[in-house]
Amino acid sequence: MAKFFGNLHLVLAAGLALALVVMFAAHPGMVDANGVFRWLHLFFGITWIGLLYYFNFVQIPTMPKIPAELKPGVSKHIAPAALFFFRWAALLTVVTGLVVAWLAGYVHQALMLQAPYLLIGIGMWLALIMAANVWFVIWPNQKKALGIVAADDAAKAKAASVAMMASRTNTLLSLAMLYCMVNFS
Question: Which residues, including other chains, have CB under 8 Å from residue 132's CB and lie 6 or more apart?
Fold first, then answer.
């Protein structure tokens, strides 16, 4: 058992297989694309927002307390891996959310903020802003701050500050976005 649970890929494959069994056992012949994409949207969204909250509630506040000799463990190994899943989860959350809205027939009305899709439309726009922040502000600045791309110390410090402010902006926006998502019916 330890070997199985020690392998993330095996655990994810088994989790996917279990989810498929549950889907088809609970609704034989009734599994539809919208249901599958809603499930994927939720999975990627939890991954994205979970990592956003990890960065803001754990990593950013804890880094100043970590002894200098231990910081490379985070900045060279943990943060780059977390940022990989963070940015791809953001993209896949947006893509699967747009597919859900398209399959349900309201993507245009929601993005145009038309009734009765105003609430989910606001949530969609907040998510689009947040995803753009991830890809076009946070990630480019984190690459500098973490030394993934060359930058002098002043540029690294500025990049870290910009990335942190963008990440905090996403945390701020996430609360309203989650409200819109959960309360849309």
Answer: none
| Phi, psi at 28, each rounded to 5° | -60, 125
Q: What is the pLDDT of residues 77-133, one digit of tens each?
A: 999 999 999 999 999 999 999 999 999 999 999 999 999 999 999 999 999 999 999
> In this prediction, what percent of the chain has a pLDDT beyond 90?
91
Quick one: pLDDT at residue 126?
A: 98
Q: At what angle do helices 8-26 and 33-54 cross, to 10 degrees?
A: 140
Could you tell me the two tokens for 128? 């689009």
Asked whether the beta carbons of 80 and 146 are under 8 A apart, the reply is yes
- For helices 118-133 and 153-183, give the axis angle rounded to 10 degrees: 160
Structure tokens, 163: 């990335």
Question: Distance between the two ends of the chain, CA-based, in angstroms?
Answer: 42
Give CA separation, 86 vs 11, 81, 178, in Å: 20, 9, 17
Q: Which two tokens stand for residue 183?
A: 């309360």
